[in-house]
Design goal:
696 residues; alpha+beta; Glutaredoxin; five-stranded mixed β-sheet; 26 helices; 49% helix; globular
Length: 696
């Protein structure tokens, strides 16, 4: 019979259409069949970029013997975690409660009602390395379901009861206090890996939100240790194998503490957050810490944008979701890695000598499946190599540049990993925001135009009901009502308003946040991950209040930041009331989240520290636009930017700033808290004011 997955939008689901398993996508039909036939349900949650998902697909779900067991004994559902984060979040919690670990592929065994009674992640087809074999697991669990229904029901009920209880502990109310910021920074500092940069040991994830928060704290406190954490972390990632040194962008994480051996998939959301923090760091150092770090960060930004534009962008607007780690099962990042002979085949001996020292290319590489395969990571600098080889730094730089280009061209001749072209709303909004920030710092208007085209496309194609129902999960998707999509698109719309002065963006953000406030609040005061009373099959009836940065920024934290920005830009105090109500819901427990609470801590920072208003007044001409770009480009946390035509209303501006307007244009006005600086007539004056005015 034809596959039920053949016409699914999800690339991950379509990739399983030829498997012999009788898959269903998520919905009521498979649960109805399970109930009518009294069968258990197998739930597989994975992603098109996921290495071990491909391995399990190949080993088990393409195996005729496994498929025969599944089709005879089970009802099988396949879910794309990118498309259905709501389903993934709930079943990850269940499997973590049961086994102490989660991840992808997530393999859950459910009752016909959708409750979990057993589960895990990757199961090999036959038992190995302490893991039970999948065939044996399927057969024995089906027998238990038939013969011991009471025990299955008891196990499922206990897990469900545990999850219901833990959901109520998500929020802990408290008062807004600057102690929250101090404690948050100290908690992150304790997790800092002073040897390698980053937080914790291994596996090593980027945590760009933590760097962004600490950069904010450094700006306010002048504490050098906080800036050191940011520098060491960003430099470690820039040098490490977690960065793609040939094409740009970052892989998802590394399995080691030194940033060397990555899982090779590249995610749009990771690269959006990393682009933003590198832009912020490079901007912050333009005045305060000019030097080598800034040059490295600008190179990271340029290469990431090159990868984004050349590989991950739709010319009409939009950014693609992910790039896979592998081309086929078992290659484990072969597209991105090199044996010494593969390098020698495309570069000259002199170029190899420099490349091998710079990127640590050796006969003993880092990849277990092929010990000669090398991950490219920076082990020696140009200066060190030049000294060791007796060459000038100019010669060494040229050899490195030419050799790197040859490797890049050779890699382009390889079969590339799959790119998921889905345009997810939240992730596109995140990248559009980061690109808008980069466009200002780099003065590249084409980047800004594409980011704005992306946002316009989201509003026209993913939100066709004039925002009455909010934004859908992705362009072309029937999935809707996800909090993350609403708040990230609202946040990007505020960024677009600051970049253009066009009030349509502010109106769109206002509509979305009004919807969020009316339709997503839970009884505790926090925002639910899906629209209230949305319901659905299985665990979708359970309420979740997402407060952690895992893997994307906390939707509740993003929401609070947007509320704070709307309050400042509109002058409407009701947004401040909402912001504080939301933050007080989490104030008692946010610091226990440490690095996973970075976005919430940034929201507390907006509520507790002075906000800087920058208002550029002038006609639409080159001088005014230069001031506007500077207002956006210079790093200053908690900054809101507005561009007003000379005759525009000023009633929404803070009183202190409004009193300074004297009709002279173009001018830029800066007020931090209740203090205002001298008006700036040039970009240089404005840059200096933003970098230094009213700092401790």
């Amino acid at each position: 019979m034809p596959s039920r997955l053949e016409n699914e939008q999800s690339a991950y689901l379509r990739s399983a259409k030829d498997q012999p398993v009788e898959w269903y996508s998520w919905g009521p039909e498979p649960f109805e069949r399970a109930r009518s036939q009294n069968r258990p349900v197998l739930l597989d949650i994975g992603a098109v970029w996921c290495h071990w998902c491909h391995v399990m697909d190949h080993e088990s779900y393409e195996d005729l013997e496994v498929a025969e067991i599944l089709n005879r004994e089970w009802v099988c559902i396949k879910v794309d975690r990118d498309e259905r984060p709501d389903v993934d979040a709930r079943y990850q919690r269940a499997i973590q409660a049961l086994t102490g670990q989660g991840g992808w592929p997530l393999t859950a065994f459910l009752t016909p009602g959708g409750e979990v009674f057993y589960g895990g992640t990757y199961f090999p087809p036959v038992g190995m390395g302490g893991r039970p074999g999948f065939r044996d697991v399927l057969t024995s669990l089906a027998r238990v379901f038939r013969d011991d229904a009471e025990q299955v029901a008891k196990q499922a009920s206990e897990i469900t009861r545990h999850l219901s209880g833990s959901a109520k502990k998500t929020s802990e109310r408290g008062k807004l206090s600057s102690d929250i910021l101090t404690a948050g920074a100290e908690s992150m500092s304790r997790m800092f890996d002073s040897r390698n940069g980053g937080f914790g040991s291994q596996p090593k994830f980027p945590h760009p939100g933590a760097c962004d928060f600490l950069l904010t704290r450094w700006f306010d406190t002048g504490e050098p240790g906080q800036l050191e954490i940011v520098h060491r972390t960003l430099d470690g990632m820039a040098r490490g194998g977690v960065r793609d040194h040939l094409a740009g962008g970052f892989h998802r994480y590394t399995v080691d503490a030194r940033w060397i051996v990555p899982h090779f998939e590249k995610m749009l959301y990771d690269n959006a957050e990393l682009l933003r923090v590198y832009v912020h760091a490079a901007s912050a150092m333009a005045v305060d810490v000019e030097g080598q770090e800034r040059r490295v960060y600008l190179a990271v930004i340029d290469e990431l944008l090159e990868w984004l534009i050349s590989t991950m962008s739709d010319p009409k607007g939009g950014y693609y979701a992910s790039q896979d780690a592998d081309v086929e099962p078992g290659d484990d990042g072969d597209y991105f890695t090199w044996t010494p002979n593969e390098v020698r085949a495309v570069v000259s001996p002199d170029e190899f000598e420099v490349l091998s020292r710079h990127y640590e290319i050796d006969e003993a590489g880092e990849m277990h499946h092929n010990p000669q395969k090398n991950v490219l990571w920076v082990n020696h600098t140009v200066e060190q190599i030049a000294a060791a080889l007796g060459r000038t730094e100019e010669e060494t730089t040229e050899l490195l540049s030419v050799g790197k280009q040859k490797l890049r061209e050779a890699r382009l001749a390889r079969v590339p990993p799959f790119i998921d072209p889905t345009i997810y709303s939240a992730w596109n909004a995140m990248m559009a925001s980061a690109v808008l920030a980069a466009s200002a710092v780099l003065d590249r208007p084409a980047l800004e135009r594409h980011a704005l085209d992306t946002l316009d496309r989201l509003f026209s194609e993913a939100a066709p009901s004039n925002l009455e129902e909010g934004v859908g999960r992705a362009i072309g998707s029937s999935v809707a009502d996800i909090l993350d999509d609403q708040v990230q698109v609202a946040s990007a719309a505020v960024d677009a308003y600051e970049a253009t002065g066009d009030t349509k963006w502010l109106e769109r953000a206002t509509k979305l946040m009004d919807l969020v406030w009316s339709s997503y609040r839970g009884d505790s005061g926090g925002l639910l991950d899906t629209r209230r009373e949305r319901g659905g099959q299985g665990f979708l009836t359970q309420e979740i209040i997402p407060i952690e940065d895992s893997p994307t920024p906390s939707p509740n934290g993003v929401a609070a930041i947007v509320l704070a920005r709307l309050a400042e830009l509109s002058g409407d105090a009701s947004w401040t009331v909402r912001r504080d109500e939301l933050l007080e819901t989490f104030a008692g427990g946010v610091n226990r989240l440490s690095i996973f609470g970075a976005t919430l801590l940034r929201a507390f920072d907006w509520a507790l520290m002075p906000v800087t208003h920058v208002v550029v007044v002038g006609p639409d001409d080159d001088k005014t636009r230069a001031l506007l770009r500077t207002a956006r480009a210079v790093y200053r946390p908690r900054k809101v930017v507005q561009w007003l035509e000379p005759d525009a209303p000023t009633d929404r501006l803070p009183q202190a700033l409004r009193s300074m307007l004297d009709g002279t244009t173009p001018r830029a006005y800066v007020c931090a808290g209740m203090q205002c600086a001298k008006p700036a007539a040039t970009s240089g004056e404005l840059s200096s004011t933003l970098a230094r005015f009213n700092r401790q």
